């Protein structure tokens, strides 16, 4: 029995090491392949290059003052990282928050060095904002990427599933990017023969928004989750004329969930609760 328990622990350790390795490699690959992450990395790295190449120009008093400010900024950044790691529900939202905090601290530290350096970083971040955007989560899980015609066919002609949970999103919306993994992860957990999951990109099909009562203007309702039962809309989040906040979506990962009973399926709306 003791050997079996030891083998089980070893197997779990191997799985954990494999998962950490995969996560690390995915992060490194994203930093190299995605312009958004690559440009941020190069901009942050440029500070260290400038810092060490010009350190001999600083007086001992100023060098000590700058080092103290850098340590204070690092401590504050680490503290915010720990807090966000606990509170943030998705890695996409966590990364977006960390990049924002890093920009703020970097601009603040550069002000201590020289205002010309501050202008350089502000210009660099502006260029990154204009020409790139944070890449969304690309996995679909058990959900289907739908065109408006496919969705209409599923709702009018029926299908194998009694319930359809459809997310209307646009990758031009930062909120949709931050929450782009919510539906795929939800679909992996709850997909079965009675409920299916789908995604409609309103950035590609903006005319579909009016058909389903989704506002693309102000206030922005993206992403909107609509639950259909036998082609009839039975619930949605957020409600019409209300705003979809990323904090509400990411904290309430189980906005809708299908729970399969022994005899029949019952849909429970879990808005405001977590699985």
Summarize the structure in words:
Keywords: Membrane, Transmembrane, Transmembrane helix. The chain crosses the membrane at residues 27-50, 98-131. This is Thioredoxin-related transmembrane protein 2. The protein is an alpha/beta fold. Helix content is 56%, strand content 15%. The protein is built from 10 helices and 7 strands. It has helices at 2-33, 35-53, 60-87, 91-113, 115-131, 148-157, 174-178, 182-190, 208-211, 246-251; strands at 143-146, 163-169, 195-201, 224-229, 232-237, 256-260, 265-269. The strands form 2 sheets. A 5-stranded mixed β-sheet has the order 1-3-2-4-5. A two-stranded antiparallel ribbon has the order 6-7. Helix 1 (2-33) packs across helix 2, helix 2 (35-53) runs antiparallel to helix 5 and helix 4 (91-113) packs antiparallel against helix 5 (115-131). The protein starts with a helix and ends in a 6-residue tail after the last strand. The relative contact order is 0.09. Residues 257-275 have low confidence and may be disordered.
Feature tags:
15% strand, 5-stranded mixed β-sheet, disordered C terminus, Thioredoxin-like_sf, single chain, transmembrane, alpha/beta, membrane, 275 residues
Summarize the SSE layout with pairings.
Layout: H1 2-33, H2 35-53, H3 60-87, H4 91-113, H5 115-131, E1 143-146, H6 148-157, E2 163-169, H7 174-178, H8 182-190, E3 195-201, H9 208-211, E4 224-229, E5 232-237, H10 246-251, E6 256-260, E7 265-269
Parallel strand pairs: 1-3, 2-3
Antiparallel strand pairs: 2-4, 4-5, 6-7
């Amino acid at each position: 029995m003791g050997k079996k328990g030891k083998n089980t622990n070893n197997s779990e350790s191997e799985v954990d090491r494999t998962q950490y390795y995969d996560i690390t490699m995915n992060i490194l690959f994203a930093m190299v392949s995605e312009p958004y992450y690559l440009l941020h990395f190069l901009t942050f790295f440029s500070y260290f290059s400038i810092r060490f190449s010009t350190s001999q120009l600083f007086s001992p008093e100023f060098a000590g003052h700058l080092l103290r400010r850098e340590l204070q900024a690092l401590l504050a950044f680490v503290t915010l990282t720990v807090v966000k790691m606990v509170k943030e529900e998705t890695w996409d939202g966590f990364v977006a928050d960390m990049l924002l905090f890093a920009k703020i601290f970097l601009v603040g530290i550069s002000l201590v060095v020289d205002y010309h350096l501050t202008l350089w970083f502000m210009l660099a971040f502006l260029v990154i904002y204009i020409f790139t955007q944070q890449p969304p989560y690309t996995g679909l899980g058990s959900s289907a990427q739908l065109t408006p015609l496919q969705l209409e066919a599923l709702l009018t002609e029926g299908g194998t599933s009694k319930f359809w949970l459809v997310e209307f999103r646009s990758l031009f919306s930062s909120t949709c990017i931050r929450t782009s993994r919510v539906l795929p992860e939800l679909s992996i957990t709850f997909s079965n023969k009675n409920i299916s999951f789908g995604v409609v990109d309103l950035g590609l099909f903006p005319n579909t928004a009016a058909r389903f009562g989704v506002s693309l203007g102000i206030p922005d309702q993206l992403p909107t989750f609509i639950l259909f039962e036998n082609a009839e809309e039975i619930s949605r989040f957020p409600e019409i004329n209300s705003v979809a906040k990323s904090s509400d979506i990411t904290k309430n990962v189980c906005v809708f969930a299908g729970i399969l009973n022994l005899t029949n399926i019952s849909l429970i709306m879990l808005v405001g609760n977590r699985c």
